[in-house]
Amino acid sequence: MSSLTYLQLTSHWDKLFIIMINRVLSLPLGQSLFLWGAKKTGKTTYLKERFPESPVINLAGEGFLKYSKNPSCLREELLLLSCNHPIIIEEIQAIPEILDEVHWMIEQGLSFILCGSNFRKLKKGNLLGGRAWRQIFLPLCYPELPTFDLLKIFNHGLIPSHYFSEDPVPLLRDYVSKEIESDIRLVGAFNRFLDSMAHRNGEMLNYSSIARECMVNVGTIQLYVEILIDLFLGWVIFPYTKTNSRQLITNAPKFYFFDTGIVTFLREQKIRTLKGAEDHLKHYIFLELMAYKEINKKRYSVQYWRTKTGLEVDFVLAKGRIALNVLTSKSDLRGLIAFTKEHRPAYAAVICLEPQERFIKIGDQTIHIVPVETFLKNLWAGEGAFSKIIKQLMSEGVS
User: Fold this and answer.
1) I need a labelling partner for 135 at 20 to 30 A (CA). Which of 45, 171, 334, 335 fits?
2) 149 Cβ partners below 8 Å, 6+ apart?
3) Angle between helices 207-214 and 218-230 (to 10 degrees)
4) Cα 14 from Cα 10, distance rounded (Å)
C-alpha cells in the first residue's frame, strides 16, 4: 500500500503551493521498526499521512530535556494511553537510553516506529534484539516522480523539497552546511573530504590519495567514510570476485552518495546535456537499484567488476547472476562481453540513452540494450527480463 504525502513549498514570489507525492513504501501494521534515513528525505511527512492518529514524540528540543533526565517518563506516559496505533518516536538517536524503555513496552504489546538519521549514536546501544525491523527511507525514486527528466534529477537531486524547487542551489547549499557539516561537527579537513568524495563518486576509493588531498591520515579518511554511511548519506560497494585472479581488482571499494544533487552541487556543476554525463546516469541507476532493493525488501548483493586492464561492469547483482553497464555515448561492450564469457550471467544489459531496446547475440550469450526509462518502468512494475530473473533468484534463495 502506497501513501500520499503532501509537500509544502514556497516559490520565488513567496506563493505557497502544495505538491502531492505518492510514496511507494508500505510499512506493516503492528510491527515495530526503525525507520532510518538521511535528513529531509520525508520521513516525518510520510508518517504523518500514513499514521495520522499515532502519537508522536520528538526527542529533540524540549523532548530531549525532558526524557534525557528521566527516560522512564516515556513508559509512564505511554502506559496511560489507550492506543491501537504505532507510537512514533522521532530523533531516536538523541537519547539511546530510551530504547531500554521501548524494549520493555514492545514486550507488553505496544508497537513503535523509531525514526532516526544517525545510526552511529546507537551502534553500541539496545537495538531491541530483533524485535524491531529495519527500514531505510530514501529520497524520491522513479515511480514517485511526476515526470521523468534526467537533467532535473542530476541538477536538483531527489530530496523532495530540492527536486520540486525552482532553484535548488540555495537548498543544496543549506543541506551541505546545516544538515551534513553541522551534524557531524567537523570542519576543515571534513569539508575538503566531502569535495574529494563528490569528485570520486562512483569511482574506486584510494584512501591514501584522499588523505593526501585532505591533509590527514588514512585512518581519518576511513572514519569519515564510516560516518557518511552511518548518517545514511551514501553506500560502499565492493568488487565481485568469484574466482581468485591476479587480473582482477579485488579489494577497492566504490562510494556512492545517497543523492545525485548533492554530488552535482559539491562539484560546482550544472549539467546542461546528457552527453558526457555518464557518471551522473550511473549514479542515478545505482540509486534506483538500491531504492528498489530496500523498498521491496530484496536481498540481492550489488557489486562491481573490474580487471586490471580496465574492463569493467558497473553493477553485478545476485552474486554474478545479473550484470549491468550504464552508458550515455557509443556503446563499449568489451567489459560486459568479457564478464559474460567468464561468468555466464542469467541476464546482461546495457542501460543507455538509445530510443529503442534491442538484443545483441554474443556466442550463446544475449546482451539486452535497453533505454533508461524502459529499464526503470520494467524494474518497478516487476516486468521485463531483469525483474523475472530477480524473482527467480529470490525464489532460489540467491542473494
Assistant:
1) 171
2) none
3) 100
4) 5
- Model confidence pLDDT, tens digit, residues 310-326: 899 999 998 899 999 99
Nearest 5°: phi and psi at 370? -130, 130
Where would I find the beta strands (DSSP E) of 180-250? Answer: 234-237
Domain count of the chain? 1
* Burial zone of 381 (CB within 10 Å; 0-12 exposed, 13-18 middle, 19+ buried): exposed
Q: Is residue 251 part of a domain?
A: no
**Rounded Cα distance, 381 and 254, in Å:** 29
CA distance 293 to 287: 10
**133 close to 33: Cβ distance less than 8 angstroms:** yes
* Cell numbers placing 149: 527528466
**Helix ranges, 135-259 (H):** 150-156, 160-163, 169-174, 182-184, 189-199, 207-214, 218-230
Asked, for residue 68, whether it belongs to a domain, the answer is yes
Q: Is the predicted pLDDT of residue 266 greater than 80, yes or no?
A: yes
Pairing of strands 302-306, 312-317: antiparallel
| Secondary element (H or E) of residue 373 | helix 372-381
Q: Which three cell numbers stand for residue 359?
A: 538484443
- Which grid coordinates are listed for 245? 585472479
Residue 106 domain flag: yes
**Which residues are paired to 323 by β-bridges?**
316, 348
CATH of residue 96's domain is 3.40.50.300
196-239 confidence digits (pLDDT tens)? 999 999 999 999 999 999 999 999 999 999 999 999 999 999 99
Q: How far is it, in rounded angstroms, from Cα 125 to Cα 94?
A: 12
Q: Which domain holds residue 28?
A: 3-136
Question: Does 31 map to a domain?
Answer: yes
